[in-house]
């Protein structure tokens, strides 16, 4: 595969002008920015990983605001400047892949580190730092992220909790009334 790295600069500039996560995902898919990007993805963050060709997003992946997909670190530059490690040779640039399988939601402000696979049907809670593979049908949270429940439990709870909530299509007045008027005491 031949990858044109100079196209990333232009894609990053264009991402700043697209405010809708569905449109942003569609644009990224059309431009073949990632190694792979499935159908039905939502990409709200404006950040792109430094090496987007090391990222695979499968179908129905939802990435919220301020999520960082980190495909490398720069520790090798520091290690190579410390003389006591010279006898071991040079540390090479550390990179790794990130693969996110079907039906995954990455919460706002989360960070996914190199060499991580996130299985299907996973929720990553906002602000989590994912340092290792996440098994399918899990809900993870924390720093570092760890399993706190199952996807099935989360889905059933969310359906119960939001059964009487208004939808966006109901309009702003209905939403304001539901969330503010009923709670006013």
Description:
With 185 residues, the protein is an alpha/beta fold. It has one domain: UDP N-Acetylglucosamine Acyltransferase, domain 1 (3 Solenoid). The protein contains 5 helices and 15 strands. The protein has helices spanning 6-15, 21-30, 75-79, 151-161, 172-181, and strands at 36-37, 42-43, 55-57, 61-63, 68-69, 72-73, 94-95, 98-100, 104-106, 111-112, 116-118, 122-124, 129-130, 138-141, 146-150. The protein has a 6-stranded mixed beta sheet. It has a 4-stranded parallel beta sheet with strand order 1-3-8-11, with no helix packed on it. 21% of the residues are buried. The mean pLDDT is 91.
Secondary structure layout plus pairing:
Layout: H1 6-15, H2 21-30, E1 36-37, E2 42-43, E3 55-57, E4 61-63, E5 68-69, E6 72-73, H3 75-79, E7 94-95, E8 98-100, E9 104-106, E10 111-112, E11 116-118, E12 122-124, E13 129-130, E14 138-141, E15 146-150, H4 151-161, H5 172-181
Parallel strand pairs: 1-3, 2-4, 3-8, 4-9, 5-10, 8-11, 9-12, 10-13, 12-14
Antiparallel strand pairs: 6-7, 14-15
């Amino acid at each position: 595969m031949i990858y044109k790295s100079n196209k990333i600069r232009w894609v990053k500039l264009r991402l700043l002008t697209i405010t809708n996560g569905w449109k942003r995902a569609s644009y990224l898919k059309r431009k073949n920015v990632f190694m792979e990007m499935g159908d039905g993805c939502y990409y709200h963050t404006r950040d792109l990983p430094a090496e987007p060709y090391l990222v695979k997003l499968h179908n129905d992946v939802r990435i919220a605001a301020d999520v960082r997909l980190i495909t490398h670190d720069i520790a090798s530059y520091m290690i190579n400047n410390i003389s006591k490690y010279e006898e071991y040779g040079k540390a090479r640039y550390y990179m790794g892949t990130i693969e996110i399988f079907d039906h995954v939601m990455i919460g706002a402000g989360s960070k996914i580190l190199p060499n991580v696979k996130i299985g299907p049907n996973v929720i990553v809670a906002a602000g989590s730092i994912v340092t290792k593979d996440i098994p399918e049908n899990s809900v993870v949270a924390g720093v570092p992220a760890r399993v706190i429940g199952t996807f099935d439990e989360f889905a059933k709870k969310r359906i119960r909790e939001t059964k009487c909530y208004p939808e966006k299509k109901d309009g702003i007045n209905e939403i304001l009334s539901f969330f503010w008027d009923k709670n006013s005491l």
